[in-house]
Amino acid sequence: MTAFFQSLGLSYEWAWTVATLTGIIVISLLVMFSVAMVIYVDRKVLGAIMMRRGPNVVGPFGLLQSFADGLKVFLQETIIPSAANKGIFLLAPIITFTVALAAWAVIPFSAGVVLADVNVGLLYILAISSMGVYGVVMAGWASNSKYPFFSAMRASAQMISYEVSIGFVLVCVVLFAGTFNMSGIVEAQRGFGFGLINGYVVHPLLFPMWVVFFISSLAETARAPFDLTEAESELVAGYQTEYSSMSFALFWLGEYANILLMCSLNTLLFWGGWLPPLDWAPLYFVPGIVWFLLKTFAFFLMFSWIWATVPRYRYDQLMRLGWKVFLPMSLMFVVVTSGWLMATGHFDSTAPTAPANTADFVQAAPAQATAERGQS
Amino acid sequence: MIQAIAFYFFATIVVASAVMVVMARNPVHSVLWLILTFFNAAGLMVLVGAEFIAMLLVIVYVGAVAVLFLFVVMMLDIDLAAMRAGFSRNAPLGLLIAAVLLAELLLAVGAYSAGGLSLGSPDGAAVQAADKSNIEALGALLYGRYIALFEIAGIILLVAMIGAIVLTFQAPKPGARARQDVGKQTRRRPEDATVMKNPEIGQGVEL
Fold first, then answer.
1. pLDDT-based confidence at A328, cuts 50/70/90?
2. How far is CA B24 from the centre of its chain?
3. Is A331 exposed, middle or buried (0-12, 13-18, 19+ CB in 10 A)?
4. b/e map of A158-169 (b: 16 or more CB within 10 Å)?
């Protein structure tokens, strides 16, 4: 996109600035729009499973329900509890929302369609998602109310527990891909299964890791059956109890943006991202972004389905699953995977290709930049 | 130009929030300022091209260590009056520590302005950092040249971890409540726990 703005007669620096800002705005708007639509889908799926109609009044098939809800919360009064710690109380939803959007910077929607193609993309996502807990913890503490506080305690323990196993799962993927760059990880999955299937999930060492990752992503986003931070029967509405109006809506949007992010991470890391399911030429006529969105949406349907069918975990069960099942299992798989890759000579055979890809991604940008500067 | 602006931006926030860590009256605010300091320090790391270290700083310190800090500090019962009660008693010790720190700072700045001490730079022959990404360069050094130090550090951490577990582990006392067996709990079915009774009218149920 920088090149396009340069063709309009801007210097490289300005073209880069304008292109990046445009990219940020476009991605944020699209993510917000998909969050609105996905909330509608969530309610429709829940309604269908409960044999209800779900939202069907506002707009055709109730499609505008989320926008009506958004308008409603926007017009409500923002109430700040008098005993609350005002600054932190208002900062918490902003942090949740910002962090949820910031992670999308390194998500490749299609080949080359990514805002920041950095070579530590996966680590960036891990870092940003580990920041997400602060919104919840600060909201819980600043509300100065016992239910939000319990919720904040639960959230911080839960997110730390599951991030550990997510980290090990990511190490397994990175061992196969040989790069932390998101586009590089997707490209490494091309024809991975028997030269035919695009996706890491077919490998017997990576399929269990995908299962661990999927369940951990449910826990990481505090989604049912791990929604102990906002368990209605115990904690009213958890950390959001004291929030109203837009500050509440920011939590809500941030939460769904995080869920979509986790769905897209499942797609990118294990199911071939924007690549079609099979490495077969006619399938490549469908644009990559269509495959990416379809896969992400399929994962979101699984999230909704699980929400509607699985009962909530007890807190001790949640901790047991994280620390006593997933952590030893993923740790063992890191050892087994690296041993397997050493034994099969994966690093010898792919060493020229995989790091070469990374190097292309990393070095292409400055080289291109100097070339473009030379032209202007 | 942009680098200079970014550097001074991050550096100012780092110093200012570090001051606020000490100055804030509420310990929770202190921890939040500390998190801001970590985050902006990571920004400085990105500026010098150490993006891997920057990400690790955020993941480890912001994502885990500071969360645990906050976890503990949030649960404290903060009574500012009681905290200030021992001021006159602790003042001499505090002043002493402050004086030592100030002396060290002055010493360091003085020594630096007198000319940097050359301790010998690590020779770059072991790894050609120029054409490698951060992670590869670090990996080549850690698993090649400094493998012994790296492993020793790992073993020390392992010992510390096991030590912490040993210190906090309490063996279940005999006669204590039965421990939960998750497998047994999930295997339990309605048929095992309930019976269907269909008593005659006027007759009670014997349980």
1. very high
2. 20
3. middle
4. bbbbbbbbbbbb
Tokens describing residue B163: 């030590």
Secondary structure tally for chain B: helices H, strands E: 10, 0
**Type of residue found at B178:** A
Q: Do the chains contact at B51 and A119, CB–CB below 8 Å? A: yes
Nearest CB to A118 within list B42, B51, B64: B51
First to last CA, chain A: 16
Q: Is A110 helix (H, G, I), strand (E, B) or coil?
A: strand
Across B129-141, average pLDDT? 73
Residue A214 in this model has a pLDDT that exceeds 70:
yes
Per-position b or e across A123-134, b if 16+ CB within 10 A of its CB: bbbbbbbbbbbb
Q: Any idea which residue has 């009213």 for tokens?
A: A236
CB contact under 8 A, A127 and B55: yes
The helix/strand/coil state of A204 is coil
User: Quick one: which of A216, A227, A123, A104 has its CA closest to A163?
Assistant: A216
DSSP symbol at B131: T
Question: Is pLDDT of A357 > 70?
Answer: no
Q: Cα separation of A196 and A318, whole Å? A: 38
Instruction: Tell me how far the alpha carbon of residue B187 is from its chain's centroid.
Output: 39
Question: How many CA within 13 A on the CB side of residue A32?
Answer: 14
ipTM of the complex: 0.77
Inform me whether the C-beta atom of residue A124 falls under 8 Å from chain B C-beta atoms: yes
CB-based contacts of A365, cutoff 8 Å, min separation 6: A117
Give the containing element (helix H, strand E) for A352. none
What is d(CA A138, CA A95) in angstroms, rounded to the nearest whole number?
9
Residue with tokens 């790992």: B154
- Residue A14: Cβ-neighbour burial (10 angstroms; 0-12, 13-18, 19+): middle
pLDDT at B170: 80
Q: Is A78 left (phi over 0), alpha (psi -120 to 50) or beta?
A: beta
A189 touches A199 (CB < 8 A): yes
Q: Decide if A156 and B32 are in contact by the 8 Å CB cutoff.
A: no
